[in-house]
Amino acid sequence: MTAPALEIAGLNKRFGGLPATRDVSLQVMPGERRLIIGPNGAGKTTLFNLVTGDLSADSGSVKLFGQELMGMRTPDRVHRGLARTYQILTLFPREKLVHNVVLALLGLDKLRWNPWAVLTGHRHLYEQAREALAQVGLADSAERIVAETSYGERRRLELAMALAQKPKVLLLDEPLAGLSQGERQSVRSLLDKVPRGVTIVMIEHDMDTALGFAERITLLHYGEVILEGTRAEVVADPRTREVYLGD
Amino acid sequence: MNRKSIAVAIGATACAAVPWIITNDYFVNLASQILIYALLALSLNLLLGYGGMVSLGHAAFLGLTGYSTILLVLAGHDQLTTAILSVVFSTACGALFGVLALRASGIGFLMITLALGQIVWGIAYRANELTGGDNGLTLPARPVPFGIDINSASNFYHFTLIVFAIALFCIWRMTRSPFGAALCGTRDQPRRMSMLGHNVWMIQWLTFVIASFWGSISGLLYIYYNLFMSPHAISLQQSAEALLMAILGGATTLSGPIVGAVIITIVKNVVSTYIERWNILLGLIFVIVIMFMPNGLVPGCRQLWQSIQSRRKAPAPETKSASEPAP
Amino acid sequence: MQWQFWIVQTLNSVSFGGLLFLLSSGFSLAFGLMRIPNLAHGAFFMLGAYFGATVVYFGGDFWLAALAAGVGVGIVGIALERFILRPLAGNVQGQVLVTLGISFIIADVCLLVWTGDPWTVPAPPAMRRPLLVAGFAFPTYRLVVVVIALVAAVALYFLMERTRLGAMIRAGVDDMEMARGVGIPVSLLFTVVFLLGAVLAGAAGAFGGPILNAYPGLDADMLPLALIVVILGGAGSLLGAFVGSFIVGFLYNFGIALFPDLAYFILFLPMLLVLVFMPQGLFGRAAP
User: Taking CB atoms and an 8 Å limit, are A91 and B176 in contact across chains?
Assistant: First the structure.
């Protein structure tokens, strides 16, 4: 049997006295599309932060293809094939779009330690970056400054930076937030085109767009996994209605 | 590109010709001083402008290099060995300081560097047997690099200019390099950078070490120029002056610290020949620059130039880029 | 005599610690609240020392001198907060650097007005005679300084723990956003706390006159000490400032008396250790 792409077991995190995640366990198989839902404050983003190492867990284990990530620094986790996007845009606003993606590519390239080479002389980086931008439909905007682009374009740039790294496991934190209906559909079809070699875990509130995307759904409430199952199972379950769709 | 290299060539020639254009030794020496402080400000600006780390202890590297150079020469070592050893020693101290200072960020970083600078100052001031305390120490003679005598004002200026040009070239390469790009990234979005696979701490620490190294090189030039080292040279005020040079010129640009060093060094020398009140002026410039020109002269002038240019081309352009966030 | 040395050094340490508490309590509160170290605080102290020395020089009463120093420096403090720090709100780095610039200006103005020669300030006549207890001679004035510091500490304690103003300051130190949210006039609070710090520093300068004298460079000598106290004690913590002041008082006095070459090293070492291993300070709650 193959190891799960992402295996979380007994993950706990408290903020002061408040538990943010309680004994969270879940397994995502290679190539799977997983949706994580739950009301605000359910601990979804905290879960992502624990997986990436932005926060350190109190106890528990996170494994990427069988390899323990706990105790590993964030960049080392990234080097093992993890990538994420942020719900709150975290970009380099004064730089060109292409430069944002180049920084993402540099993160995995030994070249990043070189203080002597001329960055713009490394054409292959820029070509790769443009490809990643083209993938999200931003080919024509590569030379624009982030601060001068629209919100929808920045959302797609977030995605391009993560995709450019060719991750094995991609965490998407509300990639549709703040987008218009049309933009949502275009991001959605863009996600559909991501090859199956990439395992995707997505947090999303927009059930209409996201439901069709995910094969399995995990429902989080007050930091606990309430329910996990196929799309049909979770939608049919009364508890979903109770904690999420109900309010 | 071509116009740019012509401009650089003209600038370099002009710099090299300074001793023949102004034959007065006083002004040639002033030009040497400017280069020395410009290098100090440039090295500090790697931390300040590119890394977003405000250090208030950078003058320590003048002191560490200066004192160790004198002590090693007095102990009987030759000049070349001394120069290498003292720069290595000072940079190694910088590596240690970096480890301590990078325990914190923001104001914490500022306070630790301030404390470290004050420790170096305090040791220079109090450890009489080693450093001569308030009286300072004297270096017996300048070195004779490759058999060339650098005692005359113009020869020393050319020596300084060569070292400065090498340093500037290296620093310029660094700011355009992948490492430089990563450094600016850690300044703007440290969390995102580590999520992209960059080791933020290591980038900042290496920058601290590189800044210490170039600071030490300027310390070497400083001690060769003055042939004298006392605690006053490495006080908090000296660190603050270097910081002011970078901010005044424009910390986000390569040329900013140089422009700042030219202005501050000239003002300081001219003013102090007429009145003793340099500190009031220094303080006033500090306050005025930070309150009214937080981006510094170079970016400010560049913006002005661009708006004039665009006004010429198009009659009524919108001035959108004026509201860019300051670093 | 060996015993005399230890007793005198101890008393010197305690009285110096008392002065440091007057200096650094306001510094710490302002730091905790506004999140910036006021690097002009040493200059405030020096300005207070000169104001006090001047009043005494013109025949003024000692307590009047302390009052004048407090009021005078308080005015400078309000001006700095209102006209310079306020427009830079949100730019923490700029605020810190501006206070450094102001400290250079104040130091140079002092040099201009009071010249480079130190001004010695005599202790009030009634406190000049040493107090004799069990055969040991105690300098009376230093004992008085200790008492003043203790009174100030108790007064500040009551201000912080028992008054509305104190409650608001504590709320602001703990969580600025929350304080703003519940309707505390944060902007006014900044001015009040900054003023309080300036007044205390000015008065401390006047009280310190007979012990330290007023001389150019006094500001640069005192500022690092206040910084160390706050780093040891934690920004915004009154208890921390109190304990930190006496720790630094002892380290400084005994350091200079026993290992003059390494006095600074001895002082800064504990501060570095605390910064590196307990960044929030010994008593601090929120990281600055």
Answer: no
